[in-house]
Specification:
The chain is of the alpha+beta class. The protein folds into three domains: 2-67 and 84-140, no CATH class; 219-292 and 311-340, Roll (Ubiquitin-like (UB roll)); 354-476, L,D-transpeptidase catalytic domain-like (Beta Barrel), CATH 2.40.440. Helices cover 29% and strands 26% of the residues. A five-stranded mixed β-sheet has the order 22-21-20-28-23. Strands 24-25-26-27 form a four-stranded mixed β-sheet, with helices on one face. Strands 4-3-10 form a three-stranded mixed β-sheet, with helices on one face. The chain is elongated. The model is unreliable at 18-28 (pLDDT under 50).
């Protein structure tokens, strides 16, 4: 009996001792750490020894080098990069630090001896500036206007036949905005915007057939032909292809799901129609005796005489185009064949060094590298001698101290600049008045008479081959639409 009492007493004492051993540290931790809002013994966070330290103290010590990667969003093969520095992201370390502190339990002090508290790792909570994010997202311009009607049809526009789809899927920009923001906060580096982000409507069978027809139509009207004129190029537009595919006198401007009008569109282009088109297509680069020119005052003239310009072999180009349209090829690059070539092949084939002569104003300008080098009044051919014909020519020779001889004249000039046949630009010592109406009753036999001082400057500078544009707004003027 005595042995049992002793055993019971021993057990009680042991329990009391164990209780004191457990409660003592618990009280100590509760009083010295928890009440003081400090981390318990043996706590390591991101490699920093935190025992007895507050959240603020650990925040100052912990490395804050977290830099989230930019999130890349892909929409229909187009990528958008959410630059974290531009959307005002912030990394919050205090929240996870405070969470560890609040989860401490002094009555589980014995766990502090374990390794798990020596390897605590935290990552910051990421937040984004609302204004910064809104500004970034708005800059993506992803919002699409919903069609005002549900019609689906094909219409001829300046860009050829286009599908007007009132039922096309519309991107739900608000849904994308929320999803992207959530992904950024979660540290997701890449997201793909799929069909679930689009609002869709059902197509009828006729509308589906129309869409299929448009895809076929598009494959023909997007054929790419590029003509090369020196440094310039000109392409046959989708609108031009669309018109070439029309077989009737009236161009089909709209095709509804009932496919009415489709029978007047053929993918096999008529050869004669193609040839006529090519003549018009090349016209602005076929400048020989076909010169459109804007003078010093911006007036447009069309001069159809002379010996300067680019003359294309139009018939050969028509034949080439006939062969191409029937070849089935999708693209071609073509340099045209020239019968006569100017200094340049571009639309402005005379460049920025040339001579401009306005017969109406009786005035001449000599441009060098785009700047006026000489400007002067002149006197051109008189009415009695048939005047001076508008023409686009070039300086083919220049001779000093030359006698000009004709049926009724034998005149000496110091500076002779020939521009076509016996027509030239030269000084006229016998003349004291230039400009005005002098030419009407006392003009030249067709040459451009020029004051001696101005003529000397022109003669000394001008080079053989320099273009000369002689025009009359009264005779050659064109009204622009």
């Amino acid at each position: 009996m005595k042995k049992n009492k002793k055993l019971i007493i021993f057990i009680l004492i042991a329990i009391i001792m164990l209780g004191l051993m457990y409660l003592g540290p618990a009280y100590y931790y509760a009083h010295n750490y928890t009440d003081q809002k400090c981390y318990l013994f043996g706590t390591y966070i991101n490699g920093i020894y935190c025992t007895g330290l507050s959240v603020d103290e650990v925040y100052e010590l912990i490395p804050k080098d977290y830099k989230p990667n930019n999130t890349v969003m892909v929409i229909k093969d187009r990528s958008y990069i959410a630059d974290m520095t531009k959307i005002g992201y912030e990394s919050d370390y205090r929240t996870p630090l405070l969470q560890i502190l609040n989860n401490q339990n002094p009555y589980l002090w014995f766990k502090q001896i374990g390794k798990e508290n020596r390897d605590l790792t935290i990552e910051p909570v990421i937040s984004v500036s609302e204004d910064g994010y809104n500004s970034f997202f708005d800059s993506l311009d992803l919002k699409e206007d919903k069609p005002t009607q549900n019609d689906v049809y094909i219409e001829l526009t300046d860009n050829g036949y286009e599908l007007i789809d009132g039922k096309k899927p519309i991107l739900n920009a608000d849904k994308v905005k929320s999803y992207l923001l959530e992904s950024i906060k979660n540290g997701t580096e890449s997201i793909n915007i799929d069909d679930t982000f689009y609002e869709t409507q059902e197509y009828s069978i006729a509308e589906k057939n129309l869409i299929g027809y448009f895809e076929e139509l598009e494959s023909h009207q997007r054929r790419l032909v590029t003509y090369v004129f020196g440094k310039e190029t000109k392409k046959i537009s989708k609108r031009e292809w669309a018109e070439l595919m029309n077989t009737g006198d009236e161009i089909v401007t709209r095709i509804n799901p009932d496919m009415k009008g489709r029978e007047n569109i053929s993918y096999t282009i008529d050869e004669d129609k193609a040839a006529d088109f090519m003549g018009e297509f090349l016209d602005e680069y076929n400048t020989y005796n076909n010169r459109y020119f804007k003078g010093h005052n911006g007036a447009l003239v069309h001069v159809t005489k002379g010996n300067y310009g680019n003359k294309l072999d139009i018939q050969r180009e028509k034949n080439w185009f006939r062969e191409f349209v029937n070849s089935g090829l999708d693209y071609a690059t073509r340099t045209p064949v020239y019968l006569i070539e100017a200094k340049y092949r571009e639309k402005n084939d005379f460049g920025d060094t040339f001579i401009e002569v306005s017969l109406d104003e009786q005035y001449m300008w000599y441009y060098v590298d785009g700047e006026i080098y000489v400007e002067t009044p002149i006197t051109s051919g008189s009415y009695a001698h048939g005047g001076t014909d508008p023409r686009v020519v070039y300086v083919y020779t220049k001779i000093p101290n030359k006698w000009l001889t004709g049926p009724t004249w034998h005149s000496f000039v110091k500076y002779w600049v020939a521009i076509q046949g016996a027509i030239g630009i030269h000084d006229a010592s016998w003349r004291s008045v230039y400009g005005g109406d002098e030419y009407k009753y006392n003009g030249s036999h067709g040459c451009i008479n020029t004051p001696a001082e101005a003529m000397k400057e022109i003669y000394d500078k001008v080079e053989i081959g320099t273009p000369v544009i002689v025009y009359s707004i009264e005779k050659n003027g064109v009204k622009e639409e």
